[in-house]
Amino acid sequence: MTTPSPEKSTPDALRAQVAQVLAAYRHPTLKRDLTVLKALNHCALLDGALHIELTMPFAWQSAFEEMKESLSAELLRVTGAGAIDWKLSHNIATLRRVKDQPGVNGVRNLIAVSSGKGGVGKSSTAVNLALALAAEGGRVGLLDADIYGPSIPAMLGAAHERPTSPDGQHMAPIMAHGLATNSIGYMVTDDNAMVWRGPMASKALLQLLQDTLWPELDYLVLDMPPGTGDIQLTLAQNIPVTGALVVTTPQDIALTDARKGIIMFEKVGVPVLGIVENMSMHICSHCGHLEAIFGSGGAEKLAEQFNCALLGQLPLHISLREDLDRGEPTVVSRPDSEFTDLYRQLAGQVAAQLYWQGEVIPTEIAFKAV
Ligand SMILES: Nc1ncnc2c1ncn2[C@@H]1O[C@H](COP(=O)(O)OP(=O)(O)OP(=O)(O)O)[C@@H](O)[C@H]1O
Q1: Of the residues 17, 48, 138, 222, which has the fewest C-beta atoms closer than 10 A?
Q2: Any idea which positions bind ATP (predicted)?
Q3: Which CATH number does the domain housing residue 11 bear?
């Protein structure tokens, strides 16, 4: 076979060649192909090197790295280029919110992380997921709505921080590990929050969401209070959520409560993006032995039953807890670890699921409604 001469390709022919190779690429986060997504922004041959620029509407960094590995040889072959210079940018889509509610200033998409039961690792998942979404290319914020146990400030190593108000009405978010964050925990330092009654708590949370001066965010992760009571229902109904995740352990009792969580979101029309199984396997820190101490297979069955995705499975491992206790979550303190890989895969799944289940609203319109 003769190698094509790069100089002979017209810009249109080159674009068609590149588009054809991209269109054949399959990945678990792509329901349709990259050309349907209009991801090919620019391609050109310069001094024998092929320059390709993609723009994606959802956070896609890890998948992009996989794609480069998989397509580079074929692209060099069909175009005759000697090297490829790849670029990825994100222009993350704003997706339709529940009941077309007006959005929160600056926030494109709001993802609620919930659990039917306390202590299953909802906050740990929310923190590492938010950091993983940022590593995947998003601009990300994290709001701790877990009013009865605001643990996010400590998990981010920011418990000593206090929000400031530049205008006496709004709060500037606390920046921690690159995330814009806010939490009742930054304001209430004793047990006062514990005695708040339902309506007071929901009102305070809605205010926290609306009165924070969020910077431009692609994703705001909301760590919901655990359970499926009145507060959770009020929040699910009144917050302009784009989609929700339900975190569970594989234990029967947690799964029963997770089922209630899914039903609650369905009732108020919040799309359930899927289930995250936390503590799915215990990994021994000495010998690496795996043990399903909370049982196995339950979250998978639950996902099947509700026809939603099992978005990720995170093991129970001492280092995940230690990193959070130190205020250095695993995704930032061990970026090359297998755990970070799992969180980044989860983030990729969440971002893709959010995009594919939704309806894109043009950003100008999305923000005019605010
Ligand atoms: N996969 C895991 N491996 C090891 N430890 C974990 C894991 N997930 C959570 N933990 C630890 O379990 C404890 C409870 O987790 P977390 O606070 O995230 O749960 P939660 O569901 O948000 O609880 P609550 O309902 O009280 O808000 C924390 O100490 C956390 O570090």
Answers
A1: 48
A2: 116-123
A3: 3.30.300.130
